[in-house]
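Table 4 source record.
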Amino acid sequence: MATTTYKAFVSSTYEDLKAHRTYVINALGKAGILVDPMEQWTAESDEPKQFSAERIEGCDFCVLLVALRSGFVPPGDVKSITQLEYEAAIKHGMDVLVFLLDVEKPWPRRFDELDESLKEWRKYLQNKHGVSWFGTDPSTVEIAPAVTRWVAKQSQKVTQVGSDWVQLISTLLHLNKHDPDTWTVAARLLPEALAAVEGAYYGRENDPQRAQPSDVSEDIVQSKVMKTLLASTREFLDESRINYEKTCFVIMPFGRKRVGDQEVDFDFIYGEEDPR
């Protein structure tokens, strides 16, 4: 199913959705998606909320299963581990594939903890995402079609970003967008641009050890990104100008020639930038 190796994070309460989790994890594995399920995690001394959030880093998307339980709420918090995992995925800019239990389907009463808070969260998820529904049978979690759509969406994103990047470079460097050499130039410049964007976002120049996000607003970040990216582009342009300067082949007389009733010095015209 996947042409690139992606990694998924499966978030849910455990006891009530054990069978559903197993079904989803197996389906993801068959599709070539890597999964790091909590069933295989070893004991850790870190707080569960911190440990789960750290596991989300490096994943490409999150699969969220929500039934009629919020799950464990860490001391001092008002949100469950599952809710915190969801928020961490959103914070990392991940797509979240949301599956909700259909409340009209039969469900074990011992796992029915549907209160107003959980109702609000389920409603929020429905408004925020295009959710899918599942029932008692784990196979009702239609994970395969959802992942297929997600992978196709990533391919479209890559194609669009690539096209937009070449368009930007062709415009800045005054190159023909459809010329293969322009794509070569864009590919050469891309690593520099990505480094510039990363440096602007993290508030650093070229120090990879200082990978701490700067405490700045989104507008400032975007402004720094654009300024740094444009500066990097101009630097690349200056260094490469000689390779892309337009060349003109001139066909003209040389020496002094009669033109009508006047004598014209063509050597003077050719040698001057502005013969006027």
